[in-house]
Amino acid sequence: MAQLNHYNTNFKLHKFPITLVCDNVTNAPNVGSLFRIADAFGVSQLILCGDKIPMGRKMTKTSRATEKVVNYAIEPNILDTITALKKEHCHIVALEITTNSTPIHEHVFLKNSPLVLVIGDENYGISETVLKLVDTTIHINMFGQNSSMNVVQATNIALYEITKQLL
């Protein structure tokens, strides 16, 4: 058995109708990791919303050059971004634990509709204002004492479940 690498694997390239929108995610290693998973899961677009999005050396060290292949935008105002995506008839899904969120494994993702997955700030999650604009809120069931996980790990789990259903 030989270990494969990105030069000799034979995964098929596939783009999913998924836009990943980040609500003020500003930690450089997290931003870099989001580029990597956006590439790995065939996300159509990554939109980084906020004032201080780090695009420097710390981010690129983690991204491993995926910022060069992922379609991305930096937008200062997430409310304008979500409003514009709603006008494009996208289904807006927030990944956040709330009083009315559905466990991700119980949610059925629509194959015929462009999907927007909104993820939140490392410390505060998705803002209340944004949560009021989304169509659906999903969460990942947790079984430990902590009620949250790192934004990148949560996004990995969510994109795995979404792309699994969309295939």
Structure explained in plain terms:
With 167 residues, the protein is an alpha/beta fold. Helices cover 30% and strands 22% of the residues. It is built from five helices and seven strands, in the order βαβαβαβββαβα. The protein has helices at 28-40, 57-63, 78-87, 128-131, 151-166, and strands spanning 16-23, 43-49, 72-75, 91-95, 102-103, 115-120, 136-139. Strand 1, helix 1 (28-40) and strand 2 form a beta-alpha-beta unit. The radius of gyration is 16 Å and the shape is globular. The mean pLDDT is 95.
Silhouette: globular
End-to-end distance: 28 Å
State the total count of DSSP E strands: 7
Query: What is the share of helical residues?
Result: 25-40%
List the strand order in the largest sheet.
3-2-1-6-4-7-5
Mean pLDDT rating: 95
SSE inventory with pairings:
Layout: E1 16-23, H1 28-40, E2 43-49, H2 57-63, E3 72-75, H3 78-87, E4 91-95, E5 102-103, E6 115-120, H4 128-131, E7 136-139, H5 151-166
Notable characteristics:
single chain; alpha/beta; seven-stranded parallel beta sheet; 5 helices; 7 strands; 30% helix
Outline:
By secondary structure, the chain is an alpha/beta fold. The chain has 5 helices and 7 strands; from the N terminus they run βαβαβαβββαβα.
